[in-house]
Specification:
alpha/beta, 11 helices, five-stranded parallel beta sheet, about 270 residues, Rossmann fold, Dihydrodipicolinate Reductase, domain 2, five-stranded mixed beta sheet
């Protein structure tokens, strides 16, 4: 006898949330979309009506009462409003704004008490399985270099705090160098990949990050170099930005879909 489908609620209905809703509406084995949340409720209801099976648009805090799985794909400012009710209710919580886990470290302890699971999707990276494997031994260093078109970094708090103007940039400019924790705090909409990398490996304070605004690139590019006792490896990915949000790569939503598939799959490839 097959198990009942897991119900999924989407905390956010922008570029990522919209893509997830469409794929769930088309059908993912063992999963069904139950509700979404959005800041612009009227606009969200218009978009939801386009689905074959429309679902209600509800406040963020209500998702946890409706869904077995809560996916956070909202602005970082409302991360906790999605995360805390889901974790307190013992749900499966899938965050896209992974950097916010570093700012709200108590959520992991809350999950231990409630029985919730926090599942971080790979997002716009690659090779997190290799990083996790290397972390079972000894990783000496992890470095990530991110290059984005200037418009993909526009509005980042770090740039505004330091008076860094990217308007009219004609040459690559290194705008940040430091730890993954500092980078996630200063660029909350841009480098969730660094937070995911740090959680898979040696932590946010030892993982080193460079961020470049590069007018010569059209894709969000991440180069990762890992030095460990088991292997040395380099990985590079160049992600196509979404049309709706240049800060987000198209592959991010696809990564969340894979994470959701793994919840019910009978065959799982990769560690």
């Amino acid at each position: 006898m097959s198990s009942p489908a897991l119900s999924v609620g989407l905390g956010g209905f922008g570029a990522i949330g919209g893509a997830l809703a469409r794929r769930l509406d088309q059908g993912l084995p063992g999963l069904r979309l139950i509700a979404v949340s959005a800041r612009d409720v009227a606009r969200a209801e218009e978009r939801i009506a386009e689905l074959a099976t429309p679902v209600p648009v509800v406040p963020l805090a209500e998702l946890a009462a409706l869904a077995d799985v809560v996916v956070e794909c909202a602005p970082a400012a409302v991360f906790r409003a999605v995360a805390e009710p889901a974790i307190e209710a013992g749900r499966i919580f899938v965050p896209v704004s992974v950097g916010q886990l570093l700012e709200h470290s108590d959520l992991a302890l809350m999950a231990e008490r409630s029985g919730a699971r926090i599942i971080v999707p790979t997002g716009a990276l690659l090779g997190l399985d290799a990083v996790r494997a290397a972390a079972e031994g000894e990783i000496r260093t992890v470095t990530m270099v991110t290059r984005k078109p200037p418009k993909g970094l526009a509005g980042a708090p770090y740039l505004e705090e330091h008076g860094i103007d990217l308007e009219g940039l004609t040459e690559p400019l290194k705008v940040f160098e430091g730890s993954a924790r500092e980078g996630a705090r200063g660029f909350p909409a841009n480098v969730n990949v660094a937070a995911a990398l740090s959680l898979a490996g040696i932590g946010p304070d030892r993982t080193r990050l460079e961020i470049w605004a590069d007018p010569h690139v059209r894709r969000n590019t991440h180069l990762i170099v890992v030095e460990a006792d088991s292997a040395r490896f380099e990985m590079q990915i160049a992600n196509v930005p979404t049309a709706e949000n240049p800060r987000t790569g198209r592959i991010t939503a696809l990564s969340v879909i894979v994470a959701l598939r793994r919840l019910t799959a009978t065959l799982v490839v990769g560690s």
